[in-house]
Amino acid sequence: MSRSRFHTTALRAASIGALLTVGLAGCSAAGEADADASAEAAAPAADPTSLVLALVPSQDQDGLVDTAAPLTDFLSEELGIEVTGVVSKDYQAAVEAMGAGQAQIGFLPSLQLWQANDMYGAEVVLQTERNGNITYPAQFMTNTPDKYCADTPVERDGKLFCNGADALTGPAGLDAIEKMKGAKVAVLGPGSPAGYIYPMLALQEAGFNIDADIQQVPVTANDASVLAVYNGDAEVGFSFWDARDIVAKDTTDVGQKVVVFAMTEEIPNDGVALSKDLSPELQQRITDALEAFSNTPEGSQILESIYSITKLAPANPESLDVVARAAEALGLQ
Fold first, then answer.
1. Which residues of 150-165 are buried (b: 16+ CB within 10 A; e: fewer)?
2. The pLDDT of residue 23 is above 50
3. Per its UniProt record, what InterPro entries does this chain match (predicted)?
4. For 34-59, what is each residue's pLDDT tens digit?
């Protein structure tokens, strides 16, 4: 992984504020006396008696910890250490929580994996697979297909696509994004590779002033972006492929009313980072436990319900550099 420091100043300033409200367990009291610092430095720190697993809000935050409970229960039993799941306020807050020792395990998007390693020395140990794929595109979706589709939408797995986006790999249909000038667009925070960075970079490369040429409708998660388009609060929305599946169980016609008309370049999959403060032995035990969990039918089903993950596999940290470069191209530093 490139060691050129990627200091996302604007992102980090926002995330530090968010960190103050994230409420992660295990926070040390500020200003705690450190009289034994020299003695502690002479010997390696003992592994913690409890661990915090940080989740980012890619979908409804309220139910995410409950959905992940079988995973944290499994880890607690396998490791003999209590593991608690928490949902950070935003993507960047999860990175800062790991840097502050408030979380030891992070399920993070690709940019945040890069940052956790580059800024705080976290080990990127696993990356996700989804139906055998190790990358995914961000998607542009609309409730106005007559405007954005150059052809008749086609159905795949109960969902509509046009402009070649039914190939399910990016890039596709990006000529159509030129029609977005003046549109209301559902946008995640700037820490989101699929909900902000890659779609905004595509718009910038198409000649857009991303601050002036679209009306940004801020949303907090991918399912909220889908629903903003579904409900007519935005004409276009950004999300990972295919976030429509998250809301389909409650909104059965979402695949017909929300049409995907373009896809960005492929993005490296999200994954798992572990705090550098954990011993190599414990890091390996956590990694092995998570990978084993993903290889069971029950574990795969749980990971699917959390983040649409079908498998966890050994990470390729160097693959994440491309996401950092994309963020830099947008001036997020």
1. eeebeeeeebbbbbbb
2. no
3. PhnD
4. 544 444 444 456 889 999 999 987 65
Asked if 71 and 302 touch (Cβ cutoff 8 Å), the reply is yes
126, 291 in Cβ contact below 8 A? yes
Bond preceding residue 297 cis, omega within 30 of 0: no
Residue 52 DSSP label: E
Sheet holding 159-161, edge to edge: 154-156, 159-161, 259-268, 135-142, 236-240, 184-187, 215-218
Residues 6 or more apart whose CB falls under 8 angstroms from that of 80 comprise none
Measured from the Cβ of residue 99, the count of other Cβ atoms closer than 10 Å reads 21
Taking the C-alpha atoms of residue 179 and residue 236, their distance in angstroms, rounded to an integer, is 11
Q: Which two tokens stand for residue 289?
A: 């436990």
What's the confidence (pLDDT) of residue 333? 53
* Single-letter amino acid, residue 311: K
Domains of the chain, first to last: 9-30+37-132+269-329 (3.40.190.10), 136-268 (3.40.190.10)
Burial (Cβ within 10 Å: 0-12, 13-18, ≥19) of residue 21: exposed
- Which of helix, strand or coil describes residue 88? coil
Residues in the chain: 333
* Consecutive H or E run containing 218: strand 215-218
> Do residues 240 and 263 touch, judged by C-beta distance below 8 A?
no
Which of the two residues, 212 and 246, has the higher pLDDT score? Answer: 212
Give the other-Cβ count within 10 Å of 329's Cβ: 14
